[in-house]
Amino acid sequence: MRQLDDYRDKNIVVLGLARSGVQVAKVLHQAGASVIVNDRKEREQCPEASELEALGISVICGGHPDDLIHSGVALLVKNPGIPYSVPPVQKALELNIPVVTEVEIAYHLCVAPMIGITGSNGKTTTTTWVGNLLESAGLSPIVAGNIGIPLSEAAAEATENDWMVVELSSFQLKGIEKFRPRIACLLNIAETHLDYHGGMDDYIASKAKLFANQTAEDIAVLNWDDPVCRNLVPYIKARIVPFSMNESLREGVHIIPPYAADGSDLDEGDQGRTMVYTDGDGFTHEIIRVENIGLPGRFNVGNAMAACAIAISAGVTPDKLEEALTHFRGVEHRLEFVSEFQGVSYYNNSKATNSKATHMALTSFKEPIILIAGGLDRGSDYEELIPSLQGRVKAIVLLGETKEKLAKVAVKAGLKDIILVDNEKDAAATLTSAVQKAASLAERGDTVLLSPACASWDMFPSYEVRGDIFKEAVHNL
Questions:
Q1: Under CATH, which number does the domain 104-327 receive?
Q2: Is residue 163 over pLDDT 90?
Q3: Residue-by-residue DSSP string for 136-148
Q4: Which residues pair with 285 in a beta bridge?
Q5: I need a surface site. Which of 214, 244, 437, 457 has the fewest CB within 10 A?
Q6: What is the C-alpha end-to-end distance of the chain, expressed in Å?
Q7: Calpha distance 20→223 (Å, rounded)
Q8: Cα(153)–Cα(92) distance, integer angstroms
């Protein structure tokens, strides 16, 4: 752990409690800063406040005081989910006070090299997979950030012999200044979080900040099949290690033979394909036969390729990757098999909070699908779902704010069985009703898939809660 002498005797405001806010407040207090933590929730909703106050940290709950931010404040550290439009953040920006997220503080604290992983879809699966690959190769990974323990807590415990493997959201990356990962990976870009970012330009720019401070000594792992990722190449100073499902690469991780870029070979499966790494000297090293990868779905082949490119960049030889790729069984709420009931398989993909994630899930199955979808309306039109609905989805059950919008898309896709679920007494009852309706439409050999294409916050506090309720409803059929 590095000493954070730059923060000594500085007035710092931490906006938002939660786990990361509590931990970063402790770190800054230990560094000698004068810390005030502010949360708009009422005191009875902030059980963490007493713990911080016992350490001598000031905590203000129940709103944002007008005098919270002033010219004497040196730094504002905000919870990533708090929008930049809230008054304390706006005032800090007006006074040219730096506004950062916990990631920036953790970076200055951490002595271990960092691997930063971001993207619209697949972050958690890929981050977890990288941790498994490094561990199976005898390295010492610490998985943290947007999953697991708060990054500043993990950074305080890390040594120079560890690898810090960090899942990063666009919210976190928007608030960095000097954060510089040794290895940075951008998995993909899809239309999401537009309510927070105000448009795709800010969203892409926030993701791209992952590479901003890298130098030629660092490595950038890029999805070569994603045009937005590829367009960032001129702005990246690090050595680029690409991965591609659709092209053979002179250097990087790719598939032999490649998949068709337009998805026209989806029904052919993965038989006969091999994942390989071609090094800078022109030698090709076999990693694994694609059919042996432990997770279903072509998009998980992409996640596996990204994880391999990262692991190889961290020093793992390609021949050490196959076992961990074979035995990895994924992460909860991400195409998670729940149960089989009366010949029908049920899968929980609650983490699919945008259209692209749902599209990728739909293309993972050959069986007829009854899809449960819908949730928070963030302004998307969901038109990109039409091709994956056609020929794969036999019925769709819709709930939440977007159910009417998704119903129109389903009509355009030619679906006949379109069920809109009325709101029950609570969100859990509504989703349970949706599961029951989907089960009544399913026949032996079908798959019932929860893949909402929307965030959960119109009805549920998180996608995890949504997924847990779905699983409970399935087990109670």
A1: 3.40.1190.10
A2: yes
A3: HTT--EEEEESSS
A4: 277
A5: 457
A6: 51
A7: 30
A8: 26
Query: So what's the pLDDT on residue 321?
Result: 97
User: Which residue ranges make up the annotated binding site?
Assistant: 119-125
Q: Which of 317, 314, 402 is closest to 358 using CA atoms?
A: 402
Place of tokens 């960090």: 166
**List of E strands, 162-315:** 163-167, 183-186, 219-223, 239-244, 252-256, 274-278, 284-289
Left, alpha or beta for 447 (phi > 0: left; psi -120 to 50: alpha)? beta
Q: Which residue shows structure tokens 């082949």?
A: 301
Count of positions (residues) in the chain: 477
Structure-token pair, residue 430: 């509504």
d(C-alpha 2, C-alpha 82), whole Å: 28
Tokens 């929730």 belong to residue: 41
CATH of 336-475 given 3.40.1110.10, 3.40.50.300, 3.40.50.1820, 3.90.190.20: 3.90.190.20
* Phi, psi values for residue 274, rounded to 5°: -130, 135
Q: What is the pLDDT of residues 246-261, one digit of tens each?
A: 999 999 999 999 999 8
**431 has a pLDDT exceeding 90:** yes
Binding residues for ATP: 119-125
Asked if residues 253 and 130 have their Cβ atoms less than 8 Å apart, the reply is no
- pLDDT class for 1, splitting at 50, 70, 90? low
Q: Binning pLDDT at 50, 70 and 90, where does residue 365 land? A: confident
d(CA 306, CA 303): 5
